[in-house]
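Exercise 7b. Backbone tokens:
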């Protein structure tokens, strides 16, 4: 049995050295500095081979200079364990009653920012509610909600700069709302009318906005992750002082783009935040059927990326973690991986019925006991920043705003047929010209199969 050493900081910030026995059944983290301050230099650092570790390696001073750096040698055959006995911790600031956890490390939100964040979360949930119902009524073709993930949307968006580039997946409508993309613009996109910035060529909830530095959502899973590494590298080369932020669900981490994107970002030292919403379910696939690792945060180590796990239902924790991640990404020119632990309360989309593969009492628990909106409301009420009167006024205002937006979007005419082919290339290519002719011929031949107000 070998003896290994662990260095850690105690509650008073003093470094301690602890000895630990190793029998080959598990491994212990070596040389980790824990998240003890909001100062960038004291954030979670990668594992390092420190002096205590070297004392227990045979053949001292016989490091071999392999490609990539020197590696200490040992005559003991030891395998790295596939998993630690303890899961990596989750950063949290708020108790379930809305009070602050004692001795929590965070920057407190001011009243104005906190109230604006709460209002945005309510707006997002209300918009989701009515647009989801609109799809059920056959008024739009498809929809995806952010129920249960409102804190990740709004808190992360508030922690970023408007100059940062956002590459969303498809559950980040709140990020656009925070940046100034209106409820009416979201609704126009879902109805695909002539005011839709995407000209009706995208599925509903596939938003994008050049004005707000939000790159248009793409249906294929995980494509935005590797793209974000490239965007971030460009921002770095141009010395913009901004970063890229790629949002993704834990299901997308099983795609090759995730691994390629993280590796490229690490090697290029690109200022990018990979923000993963680990909501437990990739459509109907639970996390334990996707990977054996300790969630997503543990994957950062393998690519040499600084990482943190955060409670995705805690607004203040998400805000502080993303804010700190942004500072490190830009000032140190490095990628950061943030795993936000949450739960997808709603169905995956309007094409899904999640009650077929998960218990309703589980959904109800997260919908009520762990609701991020309710949790944050308790916090701002405890601070005297919110009242029942304000709550009633907000819900009435937002409801009317959303219903009016739906009415306006639904009554607006659709884009002309020519918009289907414009903006693809500077000049329309022969194959697109042929496709346009074929569609025009079909409309003239079968006019009853098309809406009477369809513009050719």
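Sequence design result:
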């Amino acid at each position: 049995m070998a003896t290994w050493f662990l260095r850690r900081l105690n509650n008073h910030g003093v470094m301690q050295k602890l000895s630990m026995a190793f029998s080959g059944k598990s491994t212990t983290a070596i040389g980790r500095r824990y998240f003890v301050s909001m100062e960038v230099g004291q954030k979670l650092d990668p594992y390092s081979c420190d002096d205590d570790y070297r004392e227990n390696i045979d053949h001292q001073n016989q490091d071999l200079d392999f490609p990539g750096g020197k590696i200490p040698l040992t005559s003991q055959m030891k395998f790295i364990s596939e998993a630690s006995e303890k899961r990596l911790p989750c950063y949290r600031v708020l108790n379930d009653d809305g009070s602050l956890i004692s001795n929590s490390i965070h920057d407190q939100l001011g009243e104005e920012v906190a109230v604006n964040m709460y209002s945005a979360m309510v707006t997002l949930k209300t918009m989701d509610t009515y647009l989801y119902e609109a799809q059920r009524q056959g008024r739009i073709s498809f929809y995806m909600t952010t129920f249960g993930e409102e804190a990740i949307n709004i808190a992360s968006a508030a922690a970023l700069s408007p100059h940062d580039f956002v590459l969303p997946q498809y559950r980040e409508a709140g990020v656009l709302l925070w940046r100034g993309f209106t409820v009416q613009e979201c609704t126009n996109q879902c109805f695909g009318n002539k005011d839709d910035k995407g000209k009706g060529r995208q599925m509903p909830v596939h938003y994008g906005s050049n004005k707000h530095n939000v790159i248009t959502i793409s249906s294929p899973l995980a494509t935005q992750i590797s793209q974000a590494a490239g965007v971030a590298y460009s921002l770095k080369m141009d010395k913009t002082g901004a970063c890229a932020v790629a949002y993704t669900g834990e299901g997308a981490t099983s795609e090759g783009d995730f691994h390629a994107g993280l590796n490229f970002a690490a090697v290029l030292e690109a200022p990018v935040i990979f923000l993963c919403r680990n909501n437990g379910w990739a459509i109907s696939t639970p996390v334990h059927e996707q990977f054996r690792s300790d969630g997503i945060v543990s994957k950062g180590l393998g690519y040499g990326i600084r990482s943190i796990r955060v409670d995705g239902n805690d607004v203040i924790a998400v805000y502080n973690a993303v804010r700190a991640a942004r500072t490190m990404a830009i000032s140190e020119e490095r990628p950061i991986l943030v795993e936000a632990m949450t739960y997808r309360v709603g169905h995956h989309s309007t094409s899904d019925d999640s009650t077929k593969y998960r218990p309703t009492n589980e959904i109800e628990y997260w919908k009520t006991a762990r609701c991020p909106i309710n949790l944050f409301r308790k916090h701002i009420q405890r601070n005297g920043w919110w009242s029942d009167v304000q709550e009633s006024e907000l819900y009435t205002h937002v409801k009317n705003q959303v219903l009016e937006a739906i009415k306006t979007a639904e009554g607006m005419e659709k884009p002309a047929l020519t918009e289907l082919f414009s903006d693809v290339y500077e000049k329309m290519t022969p194959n697109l010209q042929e496709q346009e002719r074929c569609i025009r011929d079909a409309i003239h031949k079968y006019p009853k199969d098309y809406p009477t107000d369809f513009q050719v």
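Instructor comment: The chain is about 35% helix and 10% strand. Residues 111-410 form a domain with the Rossmann fold fold (CATH 3.40.50.970).
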